[in-house]
């Protein structure tokens, strides 16, 4: 086994958090530096995940397994595959950027940085955990740091927003907890290991199915509910605009960039493979909700006055695309969906950073307070336009590849949702360009805006890596797609086979049951 | 195994040591030097510490003998791993409370001699409750716990709240004890014996009518339900918990409850259930008589946790909030009781062990705050996380653990409880419990919110630090370590709990003969 990279990724941020927490209270600058170094070190350590990843190999890589609580069959098992590797890299990349973006935080710096670093460990843990209970632990461990980040360093209604976020997520995930325990016993394998659980709940051949149809439906529902809150899928999205508006800039970046992906990732990694039959039954409903989310989110964007709220609703729309691409069981759509998760992290992260730049100068995010900024801050205007175009999905930027693949794949599989969802693209162009126009162009409407300084070194440092990725994914998407594609093909093949097998078995069982009933009646 | 008197006594070292300490404390209090400030507290704590050590040693001794079970006093008292587990839990609680109370000024001024004497007597009562297998012994043990508890609740003599708490506790306690005694008398009348095994044997041989026995056990359940504050016998809890000195409240909500659960399990599992395979108490159990009694307990559990959680919602006093939370937790723990399987009992034991640390910790935080000049209202906790960073962190950890969030001990406890339920077909019950956790989340988080999200000092100079003193700090740390540790690595505790259940069927038909 090679070096335990994934464990290192989990340990380094927590160790950094402990270090930051132990610094004397006055040393705000040192705390920032220590956090930045930790985040950067984590990023460096994660680079082998890119260079040494073998795209052709199906299944988990960089796997580490250790016994944790043998009496319960709990293991510490981590690993990444083509589905998760880019998300882990996205997390490690966004963290140093977030720390840099938080440089202007002046109160309680130490606690802020410690919370962020603990959050990083928990996020990476959720992406790499291959044991259901381990995943659940990381999944819940994300909440408390995020609660504090929004609740302590947020805006005016921070307490309300933080509690709403917290309660929505925890209440959503409690049924999943019961469902995890339920399938643990039903599988009878005495393990929480994802692969073993999946295999024993969906036995090949003629072995009896451990779950009844109803139980599978309820369990899938419990899993899907937990993840749908996080995505967030319409109509469970109401916490998101509040959380985004109140969170500090870096909090928004990490929330949109990584935390929302937990929802889509969870559906993909857990809900669908474990309950393929139920997933197929629920697919029309989830597709409908996703399409509603795309259109509703886009329409809401048109009505927003606050830039952050606008971007929050655009997230609802973008993540709707991701969910859409997952439930049509099409390779192109799924590849696009995974790439779109990464894209959304990059573009929306950059958008929030751009909003943060203005907010730091003007302490407002209302569209009406700006106008003609392009004259005062030309570089900023250029960056914002690029990011906007990437979010719209202009060819040559990352957004195009993701959305296009999703729509193409969906169209191949199901025409109506694809057509409906493509209206989201048009609406997306409308609201994003309208926002850019209202902020950047026209006359300078407010006196205060006349002397705003352009982007500074630190701001460039946060934005440049993201700009680079916007073009890199847009121009040479295959570098990224060929890491995703083999895993996706394998995934879809398995899921389709499992759905087919499940349906056949259910039909068989039903006919057998009917036969027996009639047989019994004759006797 | 049957042993001689002297060998027998060696298994009673914890109880003997406790009694000796008790005598010494009384003697010192009466005849000691006048300026003995703190000496009594130190003596009591030392004695409890030594007792704890002896409990652990006895535990080990039992383990080395594998499944050993020692019957004493004509089979009316048993020393087995099951009872040792509860003695360990109760011993830890008493030890911690003794250490903590030593720095509570008001207890000192009211006469610490009395306080520690009473505390030691209650501890002895719990130790007896853990091991007793006889109806008469059971009454003696429970009253040994109860009567000093009534006095402890009213320990602040000129405090109206404290006196009210004491009076309420006595009145409710007397009623509950009365019903219990009534039931016990009938149990004896129906079966002609006072020993748990004897009653069980009487049912098995058909001498006693199982329905009548069940009904009388229902009356006993009132007394025990009162002890663990299960609905509908929980009414006293909020008032008593709020009015009593906080150290006493902490004690009532942890050690006292643990004792109640110990005897509840032993009594019901001895008489109304038997292991499917006699030598495997860690496996399936079969209810005797009408199996509906498990459903009855399930309903009690649901009602208890729901009432506790819903009532905690609108509380403004932290102690009162924790009182309702402790009612809710009694409901959670009862869940393991209805499973009728060793895994359920193991989950109860595990949950009690973790619950003790987090609940004790939460109350210790309340004591530390009020000793440092703060109040007991939730609003008094404003910005506490920033004013006393360590205390705030501890309190948050305890509350999140009580909620059942990973990676904290309370989460693991819930894993075992819910797992036992789901495994044995009580899915609806685990769903109800999960919903209850969701409800409880709100009021726990409300306290954390007040501590961390309100009254945030924005500049370094704004902080008004609340100094809690190193004594309290260390004690909180002692509670914090298991709360976090058992959330990350709990294998040893799980094994201990499993072994304590597996090695000690609360009763077997006639163990003595089997060993010969």
Polypeptide structure, described:
The complex is a heterodimer of chains A (about 525) and B (about 525). Chain A is mainly α and about 525 residues long. Chain A has one domain. Chain A is about 75% helix and about 5% strand. Chain A is built from 21 helices and 2 strands. Chain A has a two-stranded antiparallel ribbon. Chain A is globular, with a radius of gyration of 23 Å. In chain A, about 60% of the residues are buried. Chain B has one domain (about 5-500). Chain B has helices spanning about 5-10, 15-30, 40-65, 80-100, 105-130, 135-155, 160-190, 195-205, 210-225, 235-245, 245-270, 290-310, 320-340, 340-370, 385, 390-405, 410-425, 425-450, 470-490, 490-500, 510-515, and strands at about 70, 75-80, 275, 285. Helices cover about 75% and strands about 0% of the residues of chain B. Chain B is built from 21 helices and 4 strands. Chain B is globular. In chain B, a hairpin with a 4-residue loop joins strand 1 (about 70) and strand 2. Chain B has about 525 residues and is mostly helical. Chain B has a two-stranded antiparallel ribbon. In chain B, strands 3-4 form a two-stranded antiparallel ribbon.
List the helices and strands and how they pair.
The complex is a heterodimer of chains A (523) and B (516).
Chain A: H1 5-22, H2 28-46, H3 48-51, E1 61-69, E2 74-80, H4 85-101, H5 109-128, H6 132-141, H7 143-153, H8 158-187, H9 194-201, H10 213-230, H11 239-246, H12 249-274, H13 276-302, H14 307-326, H15 331-362, H16 373-376, H17 378-392, H18 398-413, H19 415-440, H20 457-475, H21 477-522
Helix pairs in contact in A: 1-2, 1-5, 2-4, 2-5, 4-5, 4-12, 4-15, 4-20, 5-6, 5-7, 6-8, 7-8, 8-9, 8-10, 8-11, 10-12, 10-13, 11-14, 12-13, 12-14, 12-15, 13-14, 13-19, 13-21, 14-15, 14-18, 14-19, 15-17, 15-18, 15-20, 15-21, 17-19, 18-19, 18-20, 20-21
Chain B: H1 5-10, H2 13-31, H3 39-64, E1 70-72, E2 77-79, H4 81-101, H5 105-131, H6 135-153, H7 160-191, H8 196-204, H9 210-227, H10 236-243, H11 246-271, E3 273-275, E4 285-287, H12 292-312, H13 318-338, H14 342-371, H15 384-387, H16 389-403, H17 409-423, H18 427-452, H19 469-488, H20 491-502, H21 511-515
Antiparallel strand pairs in B: 1-2, 3-4
Helix pairs in contact in B: 2-3, 2-5, 3-4, 3-5, 4-5, 4-11, 4-14, 4-20, 5-6, 5-11, 6-7, 6-11, 7-9, 7-10, 9-11, 10-11, 10-13, 11-13, 11-14, 12-13, 12-18, 13-14, 13-17, 13-18, 14-16, 14-17, 14-19, 14-20, 16-18, 16-19, 17-18, 17-19
